[in-house]
Design a protein that fits this description.
7 helices; mainly alpha; about 230 residues
């Protein structure tokens, strides 16, 4: 008589990386699989609960803001008196600020379309298929691509004198450089956080940062003729 042996899966034990499990089953014994605790995977109920909670919190915040603050509605439109500057609603002021620098087709169609396409397509590239940190794999190659893209975009914005978009871009580039020199084992928490972010997260962060800056500039720092004006000077 030989002592019973414990059989465990040796290939494909992580179902998230491999769709196969190898099991050894002997006669008169049950299946034995030794696995360690796996990380939590988001499923439909948990994801739906978070989305519903976010919607409820946002609706509550909007209702509270509408009760406390009056909407900045101006008087009835007068066709004989065009305001100067004529500003769009606040959620379009970022786009209106871009129209100050680029042709309408570029600012209103080309740039937003390219950004949306990038956010949809990039997660399916091999560079981001596992949503790992941008510089955790193939670091040298990705750093070279990052430097070329950052330098090209900065020169493009500088050549067109789009300084309000250049400053947020340089800030995001600086944080990406910090992420490139960090690792998940860094002693500082913010370095570990930056090192774990994927390329789609960086693109979305840059887009939101640019949108906020352009909206703020268009709302508070544009005067007659869309010229630069300081809000505290009236």
């Amino acid at each position: 008589m030989t002592e019973p042996k414990d059989f465990a899966a040796g290939v494909g034990s992580d179902i998230r990386k491999s769709q196969k499990r190898v099991l050894f089953v002997t006669r008169r014994t049950s299946v034995q699989v030794k696995v360690s605790d796996e990380e939590q995977i988001q499923t439909f109920p948990e994801g739906l609960l978070r989305i519903a909670l976010a919607i409820e919190l946002l609706a509550t915040a909007l209702i509270f803001a509408s009760l406390v603050f009056n909407a900045p509605i101006e008087g009835i439109a007068d066709p004989t008196n065009t305001p100067n500057p004529a500003k769009a609603p606040w959620y379009f002021l970022g786009l209106q600020e871009m129209l100050h620098y680029f042709p309408p087709v570029v600012a209103g169609i080309l740039i937003p379309a390219l950004l949306v396409v990038a956010l949809v397509v990039i997660p399916y590239f091999n560079v981001n298929i596992e949503a790992d940190g941008l510089f955790l794999k193939n670091r040298r190659r990705r750093l070279n691509i990052f430097y070329i893209a950052a330098l090209g975009l900065s020169i493009f914005l500088l050549f067109l004198e789009v300084y309000v978009a250049l400053v947020p871009t340089l800030i995001v580039v600086a944080f990406m450089r910090i992420a490139a020199s960090s690792s998940p084992a860094s002693t500082q928490r913010y370095r570990r956080y930056l090192a774990s972010k994927s390329v789609s997260w960086w693109i979305m962060t840059w887009f939101l940062f640019e949108l906020i800056v352009l909206t703020v500039v268009g709302t508070f720092f544009r005067g007659p003729g869309w010229s630069w004006a300081l809000p505290w000077n009236g």
